[in-house]
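Troubleshooting log. The previous structure file for this entry was overwritten by mistake, so regenerating from the original sequence record. Sequence copied from the archived sheet and checked twice against the printout by T.R.
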Amino acid sequence: MSKYENLILICGRYEGVDERVAQHIINEEFSIGEYVLTGGEIPAMILVDSVSRLLPEVLGNKESLAEESFNIGSGLLVNSSQTKEDRNSSEFRVHGSQIQRGEEFNGCQLQTNSYKLQANREYPHYTKPEEFNSWKVPEVLLSGNHKEIEKWKKQNSS
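Regenerated output below.
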């Protein structure tokens, strides 16, 4: 979705949107979870935030995406708002734009048209000061030893 210049998000109220709109106008429906909200504006903001962070220079450092809680292994899936008829196609389309399977986008490759995410528990994060209420940042994180820091991150993210 982050590949496209324009997206229109239709925010439902209470029970969603008119079924005719769902059947004939929208290309794709998204859910952010199984719970009820009063409207679709907050889920739309969540979608905008999660997609915009995939755009170049939004995070400031492209390495920031490397250690996300939710990822799909070796790369991120790029999925357009394809029409319902195109879901089994080898290409995805939006308003004439196309992404082929295997095409690289922003360092990521489209490998499948499924939305399988792998959830990883992230390691604990610490900020300054190094000590707060006698609670200390683990020494290894202050050591500057990148190999040991990576080892600590892996041990603490299970």
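Confidence is low (pLDDT under 50) at residues 72-117. Archived copy saved in two places this time.
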